[in-house]
Amino acid sequence: MANVETVIQGQFKISADADTILSTVLGSCVSVCLFDDVRGLGGMNHYLLPDVREGATNATDMKYGALSMELLINAMLRQGALRRDMRAKLFGGARITRAFDDIGGRNADFARSYMQREDIQVVAESLGGTQPRRVHFWPVGGRARLLLVDSKVVETPPKPVHPKADITLF
After folding, report:
1. What angle do CA 33, 82, 68 make, to 5 degrees?
2. What HAMAP family does the database record attribute to this sequence (predicted)?
């Protein structure tokens, strides 16, 4: 029986349990699924912004890509992973709305450049576009499953029905 653990915005989780699946839903955010398949260990993060912007109040917040990546990599190293054997799969970075800056594109660019700078091989990616994604990641072995979510489907509760009154209020 699989143990599904949700990784929400500003979090990361690692596991060496073959029955664990790490799961998240992404819009403009990015998740890096990092694994060392030699040692059977992996992890996933979920960051909201690529870097600290001017005027930010908390540069040590996990919502920033740089800190999120450092914490994920260091946690894996402490559990026995070797940097030279780490591989990455990158997901997210969609442009969900045109009303704002392309945060998703900046998040995707950050993930790619970070992996290049740290010399971590990217073996798969699904970045950009306009659709949200649901990602399931098996940290032992590095398998990932991606579902593109139809961003046009929005479920709302039915509107309440109000019976017409026989009187008129002024």
Report:
1. 40
2. CheD
